[in-house]
Structure formats: C-alpha cells, structure tokens
Amino acid sequence: MQLHNLKDETQQVSFVEAVKTGLGRNQGVFFPKSLTPIQDIDKLLDLDFVSRSSKILSHLIGDELPADTVAQMVQNAFNFDVKLVEVEKDIYCLELFHGPTLAFKDFGGRFMAECLAQFNQGEKVTILTATSGDTGAAVAHAFYNKPNIDVVILYPKGKISLAQQKLFTTLGNNIHCYAVDGSFDDCQSMVKQAFLDDEVKQKLGLNSANSINISRLVAQVCYYFEAIAQLPKEQRSKAHISVPSGNFGNVCAAMIGAVLGMPVAKLSATTNQNDTVPRFLQNKEWAPNDTLESLSNAMDVSKPNNWPRVQF
Ligand SMILES: *Cc1c(COP(=O)(O)O)cnc(C)c1O
Q1: Neighbours of 83 (CB within 10 A)
Q2: How confident is the model over 160-200, as pLDDT tens digits?
C-alpha cells in the first residue's frame, strides 16, 4: 500500500511506515494514493467475518505482508461477534460493542496492536493518544502489558463517563493516564504538538493510536462489509448507512468500503451539536467552535482530524 501525506504530497510511505509513524510532516494524515475495487464482491460477502476481513485487509495492504500473516493478525484481533440486529422493520443496528471494552474502537485498537507487534523489532514505542471516552479504553486494553510499549492517554477531565474512565485508568503497569483540564480537542492538539518535536518523537518512539493511525481505519472497513453481508441479499444494494461521527474516522472507513465496491446506496455522517462539518458543507467555511459537552461524549469533537481524508 502506497500512502501519501495529505498536507505534503512529497512524503510518500508504505503501510508499515505509516503505521509506525502515525502522523506525517506538518501534522498531515496519511492516506492511500489510490484504492482498487475488489473483484467478485458477492463471493466476498459469502465468507465468514474473519476470512472476509483477512481478504479485505490483504487487498488493502498489498504485498507488504504475506496473506497468512494478515489472516493470523485478523484472527487475533477480531475474536468477538459483530451483530446486525433488526430494530424495527427495515431498520437495523450494527452492534459493535461486543469487544473487551464495549466500543467499536476495539476493532481498530486491537488490529493496530497486532500491526505494531508484527513490525516492532525490539525498539521502544510510546503510544500517545487523546480520547473522548472510548478510544482510551480500547487502546489501553489492546496494548496492556505488551513488551517495549508504553501507552500515554490524555482525556478531558470530567467529560467522559465514569465507566469509560475506570476502563483505562485502573490498569496501571505500562498504561499512563492524564486528566486534562480542557476538551478532547485540547487533548488532541497536545498530541499533535508532541509530534512536531523531533527530539521527543525520536527519544520516545512516539506513535499515536488515534484514528490518525491508518491501521485503525482499515480495520474498521471490515465491519461495514459484515453489516451488508448480514442483510437479506435483495436489500444489500439499498442500504443506507448512518454513522454517528466525531473525529470522522468511522465514516471514512465506510467510504473506503464503498470505494472498494461494497454495495451501499447512501452513507450519512451525523454529528451532535459539535457541528463544524455540517456548517462547513453549508457555507464552505471551516469555523470550529469551542467543543460542547453532550451525552454522546464520544462525538464531542469540533476539529475532526479525519476530515482531510473524507475530502480526499
Ligand atoms: C468513537 C466514537 C464515535 C465517533 O467516531 P469517529 O470515528 O471519531 O467519528 C461515535 N460513537 C461512539 C460510541 C464512539 O465510540
């Protein structure tokens, strides 16, 4: 997989490099230069979740990793159910909360941990991550007690649920947590700032487990295919998928799925009152407001990092 930095076209990296670097120069995110549709989607949809996900990720990653290595990584990472549940006639909910920390972040966090375990050659790695609630827990559990890896989690003090907080602040060992007097966006900009300091970056072997990291995004593509596969055949191409959005990584994964050929009629991204993107689409002005607190705290993001990817 060839990726480029969306803020600096001259920086081109492989999948392995992109995963190990996290964020590119000038705080730019990496994205594949091109995406090739998968042939014979019907056959792909007939496979079970783990086999299909291995195929999708092998297709995306390309010849950098042998197919059986990817299959093993997927098997380790995706060891829990994905259920499509009919809520009422023709309305379904994709249950992505059957992983160890009860959020869809388990898919990306666990696959990223598999990637780093695969790519790491004994060097020290520090995973620095900001969380609006769910990422911290998933990343902490995915990397807990992994050799050579330290995890530093920044979270907005008092702005996440007690259950979320307990899931990652009670582990200890290689998991270090800091409550920040501020919003998720403040935490996210501290992470980005640390990445600007080459000395810090080198010394700590800095990496990010936010959806900045491409390994998380590609992992999330897989459960959209699973949603479509669980639909009755005649309904597949009529699906309208609505994605609750904060940092816009999840909806970006759905878009990658659509480009790969996943049948879908429409994708919607929905936000709460942190509505920078809807306002941007209406008046073409990127004008983030202060982050507002809501009950859907995982969506309390006013400067979504993945927007450049969605636009690209
Ligand atoms: C992370 C999260 C979101 C936001 O997803 P993004 O990829 O940041 O857009 C929405 N809902 C829940 C429950 C989440 O955990």
Answers
A1: 14
A2: 999 999 999 999 999 999 999 999 999 999 998 998 899 99
Residue 246 near ligand 1, beta carbon < 6 Å: yes
Query: How would DSSP label each residue in 216-270?
Result: HHHHHHHHHHHHHHHS-GGGGGG-EEEEE-SSSHHHHHHHHHHHHT---SEEEEE
Read off the pTM: 0.95
pLDDT tens for 136-157 read: 999 999 999 999 999 999 999 9
Instruction: Collect all residues with Cβ–Cβ distance below 8 Å to 51 and sequence separation of at least 6.
Output: 71
Nearest to 216 by CA among 141, 137, 135: 135
Residue with the nearest Cα to atom 13 of ligand 1?
A: 298
* Dist. CA 253–CA 223, nearest whole Å: 9
The four Cα atoms 164, 166, 167, 169 give a dihedral, to 10 degrees, of 110
Query: Which of the listed residues 102, 112, 134 should we mutate to test ligand 1's pocket, taking the one with most ligand atoms within 8 A of CB?
Result: 134
Are the C-beta atoms of 248 and 312 separated by less than 8 Å?
Answer: no
Residue 306 Cα to ligand 1 midpoint, Å, equals 12
